[in-house]
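Hi P.,

Sorry for the delay on this. The queue was packed all week, but I finally got your sequence through. Input first:
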Amino acid sequence: MDARTCLIVDDSRIIRKVARRIVEGLGFEVDEAADGAEALSYCASVMPDIVLLDWNMPVMDGLTFLRRLRSQPGGATPKVLFCTIETAPDRIAEALAAGADDYVMKPFDGEILQSKLAEVGAV
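Then the structure:
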């Protein structure tokens, strides 16, 4: 079986680094993108199994990326976890309506991330 893949989309290099360490520890091969536009072009060539997605980014935000991803061929496949500081229920509902599988509040740790990935059936 091929290794499962995860794309981490966040404009913070530190967040990407922390998330990478956690996800690689769970056995995933990891790639990174600094914004939604970069992530979208990545997904056009290689569709990951999981996307950890930041909400607020320059160029293209997480919600715009997610809507475009879900409309691409194969774009319904990846499990998408929003990793965000957004706590407003209407914002979270908006993310789920746009096609997110779940969300993780920042800052997160390995235990939280692993349990969320398990909830969406990714680990």
